[in-house]
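Q: Focus on the chain.
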Amino acid sequence: MNYEAFYEVLQPREKGVKDSLVSLQKLYKAVNRDASSGDIKSLAKDLQAMADMALSLSSHVQEMQETVENFDTKAYFESGEFAQQMLEACEEKGVDVRGEAPVYEMFPYRVRIDMENQDLYMDRRKVQCMRPGSFAETVKKGQERLNKAPFNAQTFVNELADAYDLALLKQKKAPGTDIYLTALHKYLAPMSRFRKDYDQQSFAFDLARLYASGVETTKNGRPYQFGSSRKAAEKAIRILDKEGHEQFLATICFYKAEQEE
């Protein structure tokens, strides 16, 4: 089962509906003109033509309904064909994808396929789309829009440093200690309702923009350094750099400039 094949069958039916509607609109104007001018003969003729065209429209709509009813959306999702075609469409459009069905990461989005209900989620938002190519385009445009959104890397690194200092106090760690970025996210969004608006994917996207920004110190001159982890699978945050290559950031430390060698 392939959505594009289904769409090719549907298109001529759509055109039939469109053409019938255009003709009906013209006939409606003619009927109004006939009635206004008192041309009863033309009025009767145009009304009959209008009735015939209405039947034609109904026939095209019925064909569309039958085509849609014959498209088994449940089988399309449960067979994995939708997921496979979605991955192919993403590859064609240059959308980076990681993960396996039913959950994928299309940085910075988390995409989930609900096969049982034939629903598609982009983060927590349900996307009404069963056309893989259209969905891949939605993701790509969303990524482009996010990348163009204003971002102050200096402000973000300052806030990250404040969260780092708080984490040191809470965890009773010495300055310069590596702190997991996943822990800092909780300090940046301390309450669960805040984390709904600023989830870990949003945090990862900001980290990616900081990583690509070239900003190397806080406003007061404290350098920072990202680090990796042996527990990468559990702790590391995956980002894409400005070349589109994946990087895994696990920890960060801020230290005084004079400590830098």
Observations:
- The beta strands are 98-100, 103-106, 109-114, 119-122, 125-127, 179-180, 224-227, 237-240, 246-249, 251-254.
- The mean pLDDT is 92.
- The chain has ten helices and ten strands.
- The first strand starts at residue 98 and ends at 100.
